Amino acid sequence: MVVSFEWLPMILKKWGVILIENTWKRAEYETWDEAFRGMIAAVRQQSVRVASYTQAIYLQACEDPNYKKGISDADDRIKTQYGDLAYKCGLYHQLGKALVPPEYQLWREDFTEEEIAVYRKYTTDGRALVATLQLRGQKAKEKRRMDTTAEVPTQNIPWMMLRETCEQHMERWNGSGYPVGLSGNRISAIAQIVGIAKELDRLASETKSEKPFDDAYEILLAQENELWSPALIRVLKNAKQKCRGIYNKYIHYTMTLPKTVPLVERRADRPMGLSYRPMIAEKDGKPVAYEAIPWFGAIANRPGETETMEDIHEMLVRTDMVGDMAFYFLYEAADTVLRMQNCKLKTNGILLHMLPGFYSLGTQLQRFTQLYEDQPIDKAKLMITLPEETFLKINKAQKEIVGRYLRAGVSIVLDGYHPDKYDYKDLIKLGFRHVRIAPELYLQRETAALMQTLRDNGFILIGGGADTHDLLAWQVACGTTAISGTLSGVPVTEDELIRDCLLADR
Question: Closest Cα partner for 489 from 461, 467, 463?
């Protein structure tokens, strides 16, 4: 096996943004589809989700006779026959973004006042664009004008609803919105519905919590009489289960997962990374932790293939890269732990398979300290393995370094523990609190008694090799807190980890 190490000098280097020449030019759109494709992918994806929420809330409003009482145009516009139109209003509500460069199609907190004005203009531009497309859709060439901002009046209800949606969906009940600052029922009914649908999607996508959808709903309900009408809030309450179904539908393949800013860049062409295997605590239980397993690529003449840590470890030792690679994986695992914390996931954290050669190095305590400063995580949520065979080979001074790590709060799991090779009382003196029994000792009465003794002395037991139901059930009965194996699940990516944990709580 020949491995290319051209990427190694870049391991710890922060990657910059590659700037490309701006070739964007404002387009004149002839069809709805052309205009929709003029928006960046993230805006199109958001529009699809908002369209689904809009239709669900709109149809719920049609079923609520009290909602219609306070809206002057309800008899003409709040009708189930317009359910598909409501979806279209949600789909095209930000069509005006197709008329600005991509960098202004998504809101950014660091926009200047001038950039904010450019961004907000998509509402009025959207109305004008819809009016233009209406004429082109009718093939009324004689009515077209060179000035596309000039709007031809219409009494057609669907076209009026589309125009008003584009322009008014960012207006708010108390008059605090834009572009005009309309308030109350001066805001079109469909624009109010699209507005709250868009805000629901935004909050559910960005809220960093264990249950983003439920928290988003609570935020919206608390804004009654301020940003949203009481009648609309009542409709939203009644549409909650329908909206929850929409949220669950799109969380699989949209960027609706809570994000953090990682210290390790995740690129599709990275030559190394982590995969995460679920760890469970019950026979049919949910994941309570994840085992992080390093992988390596960059294999000459074998693109797309990866190697395990064991396959490449000797080369890392020979090239003196063990320390740097160990902390590369530590930072990646810490990024994942931080993201789990921000999502408030009910997990015990990450168990990272550490490169065995790491424990033959001199003290790395300063780098651990820097890691915890760079990524403010709960130290107990990031555990690393120390194979017992490695532990038995290192010298006394190196064992003392391990003890210093433990006393500094680094969680180390002694992996593959044999009680006849190292007394558990000596492990206590050194500072160990986590052990994983050697798999060959499983399903033995003496091992079950040992595990009970370890638990009585404050040890946390980690399990593994859960490849049969009998072995999994035995480890559960023996009090292990997290077990991995073929029965616990297949390795997943970080995004899949977060998604699965969020959906597990639904």
Answer: 467
